[in-house]
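FAQ: What does a multi-protein file look like?

Like this. Sequence, then tokens, then the next protein.
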Amino acid sequence: MSILSVREFFKAKQLDVPIIELEVSTATVALAAEAHGVEPGRIAKTLSFKLNDARVVLVVARGDARIDNKKFKNVFGKGKMLGLEEVSEITGHPVGGVCPFGLANPLPVYMDVNLKIYDIVIPAAGSVNSAVRMSPEKMADITQAQWVDVCQAVEQPE
């Protein structure tokens, strides 16, 4: 069902963004990277956090990046990742298919600056076997995301 909301999101914005549906699961960064034939950093994972002020935010980060707790706290204050049931309920997407498109509830989207090194990234598209390819800048534009620095430094690919 949630892949339909992603299709509707793109249609409402008059965007021709092909959704790639695979026969294999892409629910983890490792599976997605292997299925799409790219390094894990190009997989744009969407993480869901509940902040101490009860706001829920989405952070899109490189697949090989980890949240830096100090940087996160400086930007958002304290928070914790949503539980599995909460993720599906709040975003409308299953864990492994969460993306910043076609959300069940409007949520602020933040993108980690480390994604900017890539020309194309591959976020999920609402299911555990779907994705899209687009530039980080386009993703930020269509989701009205703000750029933040909340991840640990990652070695740049050569």
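And here is the next protein:
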Amino acid sequence: MPNLNKVMLMGNLTRDPEIKYTPKGMAITQLALAVNRVWSNEAGEKQEEVTFIDVEMFGRKAEVAAEYLKKGRPVFIEGRLKLDSWDDKASGQKRSKLKVVGESLEFLGGREGGSGGAGGSGEGGEYSSARPAARPPSRPASPPARPPVDPDLDAAEDDIPF
């Protein structure tokens, strides 16, 4: 039987990311995400529900999240569910918590963590390097530079002797 554990979340951070490092130097960042759900009830009244979700990221993505994300910033995270279990030291009871392990991160909204969303503004960018995606230049880009012309290599097909 096939298995699938995939989560896709879009929401706002409820606090600044907290980064820690393992003894071997791997970064671990804890995020808290608020995801809103809005609907109308049978009477036509607008209803809203907020779900708070803990997210954990590892490695370079964790470092990028800690560096560029701040409280209130909209973000899109893909990952998987993980169940943590432990014994409560105070009561001795078995405790558990469901969280998301983030595997992919996309910045949404403007650069300075302002409001916004994925509404096609072109300002978001999926994490692929140490920096968030750059904004498009304000002036038109110049055409790509042409490589120098080599008379031996740039000959027309009729000029080739074989």
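Q: Is there any per-entry metadata?
A: Some entries carry free-text notes. For the entry above: The first strand starts at residue 7 and ends at 13.
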